[in-house]
Every structure is written in C-alpha cells, then in structure tokens.
Specification:
There is one protein chain. With 368 residues, the protein is an alpha/beta fold. Helix content is 48%, strand content 17%. The protein has 2 domains: 174 residues, Rossmann fold, CATH 3.40.50.1970; 190 residues, Dehydroquinate synthase-like, alpha domain. The protein has 15 helices and 11 strands. Helix 4 links the parallel strand 5 and strand 6. The protein is globular. The structure holds nicotinamide-adenine-dinucleotide (NAD) and zinc ion (ZN). Nicotinamide-adenine-dinucleotide binds next to helix 2, helix 4, helix 5, strand 8 and helix 6.
Length: 368
C-alpha cells in the first residue's frame, strides 16, 4: 500500500511517498534521487536503535554507501551547538556537494538536518524520512528548517526543500500514544482551516483513528500532506496564505514557552489546546456556531486530546504575561497580534481586526 503526492514550489518539485512498511524498500526509492551514491544518515540514538538496521540494509542492498551521525534525542538538542557538531562531522567526512543527507527521525531531527543541509557547502540535497505522525503530516513537508535559541523556538532557520519524503506509517507502531495525539492535532488542523470534507471524514472515522487502523492512518497522512502541499505551492515562504497553517499555534507557542518547552507538554499538545482557544475566539467573534465548537471539543475529548492548560502551567502565568509572550511570536507585525481564526468549519483567515476584549476573555477562561 503506497500513495504518492507531489509538492511543487517556485523553483523545484519533490515527491512524498506514504505507505505501510516502505522503509525496507527505501533504498531503491532513495537511489533515484542521488547524484553520488553516498548519503549521511542523521538520526537520534533512540530511532537508530529501533529502525537503523532496516534503513541501512536497504541502502546496502542498493549499493549506496553511508556514514551515520547519531545525536542525542530531544528538543533541547535542537540548537546551534548541534548544528555545529553535525556540520563539523560532515566536513571531517569530506562531504561532497553531490552527497545527500537523510533526516531520519521526528520533527526535531527533520528541522536540524534540513538546516544543516541548507548551509553545508552552501546547500546540499537532503531527504526526509519522518518517523513521528507529526513529522509525517507536517514538519517533513514544506521546507521550514531551524533551531531554537534562548529567545524562542525556530527563530534561526531557512526555507529549504527536501528532494524526497518517505513516510512509513508502520513506524508509528512504536510511537507513544501521546505523540500520536500530538500529530493528530496537526491533522485535524488541515480539516479545520481548509478542508471541510476531510474534517467530516475525520469526525466520522473517530473510532478507526482511535485504534490506529493503518488504512485510515495512511489516508489521514495523505490528505494532510495534500493540503499542506497546496498551501506550500501557493506561498512557500509564508508571505500570506501559509500563515493559516498556524491555527492554534500563537496560543500554543505561548503555552509551550510558559512551560519552558519542557517534555511535560509536547508541541502537539500545546497546539491542541491552542486550536480550542482559536475556535473559542472564532465563536465569540460570531464566526462559528457554538454547537460546532462543541462538536470539535467533544471529538478532541473522545480521542483524549488536551483541551485545557494543565494547572501547573496555568499557575505560572497571567493575562498580561500570556499576551506578552503571544506578542513575541513571529506572526506579530507592528506590535499587533495577528490571529488565525475560522470563518467557519473548513475555512481559516488571518484576523488582524478582532475584539481585544474577547481575546482577553478567551485567555482568561483558559488560564484561570
Ligand atoms: N518544520 C516545520 O514545518 C515544523 C512543523 C511542525 C513542527 N516542527 C518541529 O517539530 C518538532 C516536533 O516534532 P515531533 O513531534 O516529531 O518530535 P520529536 O522529533 O522530538 O519526536 C518525539 C519523540 O518520539 C521519538 N520517536 C520518533 N519516532 C519514533 C518512532 N517511530 N517510535 C517511537 N518513538 C519515536 C523521538 O525520538 C522523540 O523522543 C518541534 O521541534 C517543532 O518545532 C517543525
Ligand atoms: Zn505545529
């Protein structure tokens, strides 16, 4: 079972291959994209142990030579120090401009490797093999790369597209349920912002998604990537429409920042809460009906997704502080917080005009 999608950008195009158990045959797919038959696998210790052999065997079978750079696991390593380490290793290995990097892991690995690829020898090819649901439906597609600094998340980075994305849903069987739900927040986001049919398909197939039915997972990953590809084609560098992909993220990033990006709350969990806040705001603005807001909330709760800010995080903030953090978001222009809101279910827009009183009341409801 394999599905293929194409992402077109202003200057290039690449394929996303989505399927069950395609890692074991990835070597032949990768080979077609190589100039030199030499790759650098960049992964973390955990994924290396779980799936390293599967990838390596497939490369060997296809006579692709490889070196490995195995880094520590965790968002705390998504920083310039790790980029230094990786690029130095690549140079020590005498990397050639025609060699290729393989990002083998979740969004953290994908963002780090994409960034490294974009700056090593002024840009070398890279391939994404995303291993988490979040990275398969979101971070591996669209070419945003980057690292965190003490000032915030993803503030240093580049737009740099991969040459190929291979998403094998069989890898998700080892992913903790929490991480699956984190990815699901990004999946339902596509339904909410731009694809009403997909949203209804998700709501209707709640029970299948809850049990990780492979056929339904592949379909959900495929339809998510398809939506992301549409947006990226229209606006690769987030000059306008791409911003709607940030539904729930301005709120979510604030929650993550208050929690100091600790593991106790994943990005997807923060986004899940953030989406609920954005929907509440959309409802207060009179854009979506209360019954629709409740329908989505019920779905989130049924899947055991987060819809409330945990008490230990709430207790660390105030309305003023929350808004200050929202203000430091990349979406802020001229000191005004732009929000992504829904016009209705399946249609998002960038709202620069809204009632600040209503925004305050939404934040207050969630932090008190
Ligand atoms: N570039 C983009 O457009 C974009 C979009 C969304 C998010 N992101 C970034 O992505 C990152 C989050 O990505 P993530 O949620 O994939 O987190 P992650 O990469 O940290 O992975 C989560 C955890 O799951 C483990 N893991 C990965 N694959 C596994 C598997 N198959 N089985 C078991 N465990 C596995 C990882 O080792 C890690 O411990 C954040 O840094 C975020 O900023 C980037
Ligand atoms: Zn996200």
């Amino acid at each position: 079972m394999k599905k293929t999608l194409e992402v077109k950008t202003g200057t290039d195009k690449y394929k996303i291959l989505i399927g069950d158990n395609i890692l074991s045959s990835s070597g032949s797919l990768i080979k077609k994209k190589l100039i030199n038959p030499r790759v650098f696998i960049i992964t973390n210790k955990f994924i290396h142990k779980l799936y390293g052999k599967k990838l390596e065997n497939s490369l060997k079978k296809n006579k692709i030579s490889f070196n490995k750079i195995v880094i520590n696991d965790g968002e705390q390593y998504k920083n310039i120090k790790t980029i230094n380490l990786i690029t130095s290793k690549l140079l020590e290995y005498k990397i050639d401009r025609n060699d290729t990097l393989i990002a083998f892991g979740g969004g953290v690995i994908g963002d780090i490797v994409g960034f490294s690829a974009s700056i090593t020898l002024r840009g070398i090819n890279f391939i994404q093999i995303p291993t988490t649901l979040l990275s398969q439906v979101d971070s591996a597609v669209g070419g945003k790369t980057g690292v965190n600094t003490k000032e915030g998340k993803n503030l240093i980075g580049t737009f740099y597209q991969p040459k190929l994305v291979i998403a094998d849903v069989s890898l998700l069987k080892t992913l903790p349920k929490r991480e699956i739900l984190s990815g699901y927040a990004e999946i339902i986001k596509y339904g909410l912002i731009m694809d009403k049919k997909f949203l209804h398909w998700l709501l209707d197939n709640e029970s299948k998604l809850k049990t990780y039915n492979k056929k339904y997972l592949i379909e959900a990953v495929f339809r998510s990537c398809k939506n992301k590809a549409i947006i990226v084609k229209k606006d690769e560098k987030e000059k306008n429409i791409r911003a709607i992909l940030n539904l729930g993220h301005t709120f979510g990033h604030a929650i993550e920042a208050i929690n100091h990006y600790q593991k106790s709350l994943t990005h997807g969990e923060a986004v899940s809460i953030g989406i609920m806040m954005a929907l509440e705001m959309s409802s207060l603005q009179g854009n979506i009906l209360n019954k629709n807001l409740n329908k989505i909330k019920d779905h989130f709760q049924e899947l055991k997704m987060k819809t409330k800010i945990p008490i230990n995080i709430k207790s660390k903030t105030s309305l003023k502080k929350f808004k200050e953090i929202m203000n430091s978001d990349k979406k802020v222009k001229n000191n005004h917080i732009n929000l992504i809101l829904l016009k209705n279910l399946g249609k998002a827009y960038l709202a620069s005009r809204y009632s600040t009183k209503k925004l305050d009341s939404v934040i207050n409801k969630y932090i008190n």
